[in-house]
Design brief:
Layout lengths: L2 E5 L9 E7 L6 E2 L4 E6 L4 E5 L4 E6 L6 E3 L3 E7 L30 H4 L2 H10 L17 H9 L22 H16 L2 E9 L1 H18 L6 H14 L5 E4 L2 E4 L5 E7 L2 E3 L2 E2 L7 H17 L4 H4 L4 E5 L18 E15 L2 E15 L5 H16 L2 H5 L2
Parallel strand pairs: 12-15, 15-16
Antiparallel strand pairs: 1-8, 2-4, 2-7, 3-6, 4-5, 6-8, 9-17, 10-11, 12-13, 12-14, 16-17
Length: 396
């Protein structure tokens, strides 16, 4: 029978290597054509490697944790051979891989039945799938089952052992290493300053409460606040083009397009997928795109194209309860808008003390490009647009 090579696929511009984070199959397992057999982690995203043919996994050349280059050989499939549906075979080194080391079994478990995406969420959340009551077909654990276990985990459900020491050392993932490096590079390179303001959320909250049910019924997506801030940011960027610019060498590059990064919590940390051409999208289209990208972030399926090329970023720390924060610029962008949580506070309004739902907002910016006047004006325009969302419809 012919052997088919499993190789590292092209992973996008400027990405040449990855780490093997997981093998979904063991030597001797049956695989279907195009079935996910391994997972790679780059400094930007994770991606699955699919089987080039149906057959049995014959060899695993590169172990989990190995760093591999584009085009490298990961393993081989013996085409046309039937393997076992589930096994406890051990990963062998390349010179031993043809010899099964442990007898295969056909014992079925929640982990065997669940797909790669569900196993990935469970592993990253520390959940033992064997202890999760599956509600899917044939007792399979679904994403919802794992997320429920994550929200209220018991010691039995979690894949934990009693602590035996005062420390635990875990190697940083490539993505986390890159996040750390880029954030530190941003601080070391850009002249970062932050300006603050506060927004009265009364009108936009009233608008949302009045139309949220009709909006969701018509468009099939929830009406949130992020779309208003994205629209407000686009309007402000058009008036203050320095905020939508970047530095390349000794040149300022002014962007005439508006690809807005939206920071979301992903399966492996904070990621910033990009809403393309946000200036051409309606509120409903922005909400749908944010929902789509956020789900991909949770599933760990964001592609390179989802995360590159943004011109400005909006980050909502308020969803985690942050009241006040200074966000860090996402290079090579020149600014980032940080939203905090909405909290009722007493404010002075027309000579009276009233209680209003208020949100602090922050604009961190690169002072090499943006002066104080532009930064303050930009944030004021955000404030004006959100406090009176009719301005977004009228373009004033």
């Amino acid at each position: 029978m012919a052997l088919k090579d499993i190789i590292v696929p092209a992973m996008g511009e400027s990405v040449s290597e990855a780490t093997i984070s997981k093998w979904f199959k063991k030597i001797g397992d049956s695989v279907r054509a195009d079935e996910a057999v391994a997972e790679l982690e780059t400094d930007k995203v994770t991606l699955e490697v699919n089987a080039p043919a149906a057959g049995m996994l014959k060899e695993i050349i590169a172990r989990e944790g190995s760093t591999v280059q584009v085009g490298a050989l990961l393993g081989r499939i013996e085409e046309g051979v039937t393997g076992v549906a589930s096994s406890t075979l051990q990963v062998a080194s390349s010179d031993e891989s043809a010899k099964p080391q442990i007898q295969a079994t056909t014992v079925s478990s929640a982990q065997d039945k669940s797909g790669p995406a569900v196993r990935k969420i469970a592993d990253e959340s520390g959940i033992n799938l064997a202890n999760v009551q599956g509600t899917g077909k044939d007792g399979r654990a679904t994403k919802g089952d794992v997320l429920s276990a994550t929200a209220s985990p018991s010691l039995a459900a979690r894949n934990l052992q009693p602590a035996t020491g005062r420390e635990e050392r875990v190697k940083m993932s490539k993505l986390r290493q890159t996040i750390a490096r880029r954030l530190k590079d941003s601080q070391n390179t850009a002249a970062i300053l932050t300006t603050f303001n506060e927004i009265d959320m009364s009108n936009v909250m009233a608008l949302r409460n009045e139309y949220k049910e009709a909006f969701e019924k018509k468009y099939g997506v929830r009406l949130g606040f992020m779309s208003f801030f994205v629209k407000a940011a686009v309007a402000a960027l058009k008036e203050i083009p320095e905020v939508n610019a970047s530095i390349e060498g000794d040149e300022l590059v002014y962007k005439r397009f508006y690809d807005i990064g939206v920071a979301v919590g992903g399966a492996q940390g904070l990621v910033v997928p990009v809403v393309r051409n946000a200036d051409e999208l309606s509120i409903a289209e922005i909400e749908a795109e944010i929902a789509r990208l956020a789900q991909k972030a949770k599933d760990g399926t964001l592609a390179m194209d989802d995360m590159t090329g943004g011109t400005f970023t909006v980050s909502n720390g308020g969803v985690y309860g942050s009241l006040f924060a200074t966000p860090i610029i996402n290079p090579p962008q020149s600014a980032i808008l940080g939203m905090a949580k909405t909290e009722e506070r007493p404010i002075a309004l027309k000579g009276q003390v009233v209680i209003r739902p208020m949100m602090y907002v922050a604009l961190s910016y690169d002072h090499r490009i943006i002066d104080g006047r532009e930064s303050v004006t930009f944030l004021v325009k955000i404030k004006e647009a959100v406090e009176d969302p009719r301005r977004l419809l009228l373009g004033v």
